[in-house]
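User: Can you model how iron/sulfur cluster sits in this protein?
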Amino acid sequence: MTGARRVPRDGRRAPRRRPAPARAAWESLSAEIRACRRCPLGATRTHAVVYRGSLTPEVLFVGEAPGAEEDRQGVPFVGRAGRRLDEAIRFLGLPEGTVGILNVLKCRPPHNRFDRAAARTCRPYLDRQLDLLRPRLIVTLGAHALRTLDPSAPPVLQSAGTLRAGPAGPIFPLIHPAAALRSRRWGERWVHDLTALRTWRAGRAREAL
Ligand code: SF4
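Assistant: Here's the modeled complex, given as structure tokens:
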């Protein structure tokens, strides 16, 4: 049976296991980020915020920058928006161990205002994380994450809810979960686009049968 893929009783093929990045390379990169002072945000942050989730994510959620709670804990998406994202992950039926979460900027910008210059300085860390994690799908959260990973994408409100062929692989843009908390209208848009993502994933699963 060498090389055969296990087929569960429901007939679906089990996803092919991908090798995790070398633990030493990941730990070394994470330590480098935690110690970084390359841009002015390094002087005002409490913690650099590196990553949470599996080191072999099928789906990688990419946000914009840490907020106050993330800065305090050093973990991405742990405030109200994070709880909204965790609900979304459950809604999508993504099991623990198949998901990763990070931000474009690793340190909190003052007043939560996305800092483009800092993002350019910080970009190599994001690229190195993507190289090590190699997710099958990237889900961008908000306009800045989309613009960072797919500069030619139309504005987020046009792009959200539709799969794109990004420069480094497939991207499914969503609005930021914090936006979904701001009004009923944006909350409905969030659910609408998440439903589109869930439908797309279900179609992919059927094709794999
Ligand atoms: S935002 Fe990025 S480049 Fe700036 S100090 Fe933090 S880790 Fe370093």
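A couple of observations from the model: The two ends are 20 Å apart (CA to CA). Residues 58 and 136 are 5 Å apart (CA to CA).
User: Helpful, thanks.
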